[in-house]
Amino acid sequence: MNSEAKAEDSLPPPPGPPPHEPKPTHLMSAPSSSSSSSSSSSSSSSFDLIPNLPNDVALQCIARVPRYRHPHLSLVSKSWRSVLSSAVFFSTRSLLNCTQHSLYIIVRVNCDLKWFVLHQSPRIIVPLPSNPFPAIGSAFAAIESKIFVLGGSVNDVASPAVQIFDCRFGRWKLGPRMRVGREFAAAGVIGRKIYVLGGCLADNWAKSANWAEVFDPAADRWTAVESPAEVREKWMHASAVVEEKIYAMADRGGVVFAPGTAEWSGVSTKLDLGWRGRACVVDGVLYCYDYLGKIRGFDVKEGMWKELKGLEKSLPKFLCGATMANVGGSLVVLWESKGNGKEMGISCAEITIQKLSDGSLCGSILWSDVILSVPAGSAIVHCLAVAV
């Protein structure tokens, strides 16, 4: 691998948001684990997070506060601001099971990519720093609190670049580059590793050998994954992970890869004929919209499509497509709605799904609303859920 592929370059912190938006917290010095473990008294002598409480207890109290309140908490004191910007704070939230699922949304506005996060309970949408090097046809994946933007076309050239957004601190950085440039690739996370398939024309040895590759965050590097020649399509239109297997739809049919057994296969004819556009998986069922604009789910075990009933009068028919994500076990759907001419809306609905005794799928809408107004002609690029 090239030495540049092993290096991880840091990017300067993005410019702050407009004055009316809460400023993203940035990584600041935090109490070191060595000092806290050596003596709680020495820690408390430097600062007390909450008077008359040990700092470890105070940290657990602060960690339980909903995430949308964190910008306000950072105004309490320098010590609170430091803790809120530390890795130990987010580790504490995870240990206390206080993480909250938020929906990260990417919208193409003119030639720029705009990023937003939709917090739940209450629903608040906040703009985020955009990725420094926008591209067309990037793939997306999330591991824990980090979103990976993989490749894409820059000036009509497929890029191997990897951009990483840390949802905890609102910061971008560059990750190890992929072994080959890719655009419109398929990506999926299995076992805390990112697998990327296709997005490159296997017209030479390097691209054939690296048509599929895997990123291991622990080793911080990409390695090639062997693939048979018959699966090496260039364009991947959609992908999803179901039961530890990556399903990817290509120009002609699709492919299935099981990393656990290193086995490749084709998708079933029924799945191929019914999979249209972007999809997501909830409780082992793959959901997307069909050619009639209805949401349907494919049960891999049963090998059949089923209409998600109960939504006929509540949602529009998604003839122009929709983007979906699994947010904390609910199916969340995003679509582009009409505006006033100069602007258009981004609408969102959260749906709970129940599998009835007869095997049918029934959906119930928890809420549905326009969450964002953007200039007319904008388009939803992607959305995915991250727990922080």
Care to describe what's here?
The protein is mainly β. It has 9 helices and 26 strands. The strands form 6 sheets. Strands 18-19-20-21-25-24-23-22 form an 8-stranded mixed beta sheet. It is globular. Mean pLDDT is 86; it is low at 1-45.
Uncertain spans, ≥5 residues at pLDDT below 50? 1-45
Q: What's the N-to-C terminus distance? A: 33 Å
Spatial ordering of strands, largest sheet: 18-19-20-21-25-24-23-22
Structural class, by secondary structure, is: mainly beta
What is the number of strand segments?
26
- Average pLDDT, rounded to a whole number, is 86
Shape: globular
Largest sheet: 8 strands, mixed
Portion in strands: 35-45%
Cα radius of gyration in angstroms: 22 Å
Multimeric status of the protein: single chain
* Helix count from the secondary structure assignment: 9
Roughly what percent helix?
10-25%
Write the layout of secondary structure elements.
Blueprint (H helix, E strand, L loop, with lengths): L2 H4 L26 H6 L1 H7 L8 H9 L6 H4 L4 H7 L2 H9 L5 E9 L2 E8 L4 E5 L10 E5 L2 E5 L2 E2 L2 E2 L3 E5 L4 E5 L10 E5 L2 E5 L7 H5 L2 E5 L4 E5 L10 E7 L2 E6 L3 E5 L4 E4 L2 H6 L5 E3 L2 E5 L5 E5 L4 E6 L13 E5 L2 E8 L5 E13 L5 E15 L3 E9 L1
Parallel strand pairs: 21-25
Antiparallel strand pairs: 1-2, 1-26, 2-3, 4-5, 5-8, 6-7, 8-9, 10-11, 11-12, 12-13, 14-15, 15-16, 16-17, 18-19, 19-20, 20-21, 22-23, 23-24, 24-25
